[in-house]
């Protein structure tokens, strides 16, 4: 089976501190892959390496058949890697529409539109297009951050803790949206999460991290294994 995204034995350092140690994972096309683990084990660093925000110090990252090397984040976005950062990072003084339109930056002129399916997935955004991003609730801002990434027309969507601080009803909406993107749009999705029930419900494949290393890889059903849960207990 082909791979949409793969990382092979990557290391990442922040100064003298090593955040990732020989991390390898594969995201297969049209599947949801979840990376789980406690706080501070390297999950977000893995996404920052994939998106080019932080440079790796060893190993390689491949997007399809292409070796990413030192490609900056904007080039990876143009290639088809969409990123939803932890904390959402929307523009609070811009309107919802303007926030979505920031996704136009790397697109050719013909594609500088908001795909209708985004507003169908998240109808609250359609009703609030003229409201400032800062006026939205945390859950609505998360939907906006996902929508903004989708405007870039990604083939791989990377999300950092999309359920963090979100009310249960919107978590369900986000779960349904990610399943729609996988099943109807054929999108490959990689998410970092700590909410086990969310991953158990929507993920196809899981990786469990601890101390900057991958400790387990397998199907989402492995979340019920004692040796997996041991790495996830606080």
Explain what this protein looks like in three dimensions:
With about 230 residues, the protein is α/β, with parallel strands linked by helices. It is about 30% helix and about 25% strand. It contains 9 helices and 10 strands.
Write the layout of secondary structure elements.
Elements lengths: L4 E10 L2 E11 L4 E5 L6 H9 L6 E6 L2 E2 L5 H7 L1 E4 L11 H6 L14 H6 L1 H5 L10 H14 L4 E5 L7 H16 L4 E6 L2 H7 L2 E6 L2 E7 L6 H4 L5
Parallel strand pairs: 3-8, 3-9, 6-7, 7-8
Antiparallel strand pairs: 1-2, 1-4, 4-5, 9-10
Determine and state the CATH class.
Alpha Beta
| Structural class by secondary-structure content | alpha/beta
Number of domains: 1
Strand content: 25-35%
Bin the helical content.
Answer: 25-40%
Placed side by side, the strands forming the largest sheet appear as 6-7-8-3-9-10
Task: Estimate the global geometry from the Cα principal axes.
Answer: globular
Number of strands: 10
The low-confidence runs, each spanning 5 or more residues with pLDDT under 50, are: none
Mean pLDDT: 94
Named CATH architecture: 3-Layer(aba) Sandwich
Based on CA atoms alone, the radius of gyration comes out at 17 Å
Short description:
The chain has 234 residues and is α/β, with parallel strands linked by helices.
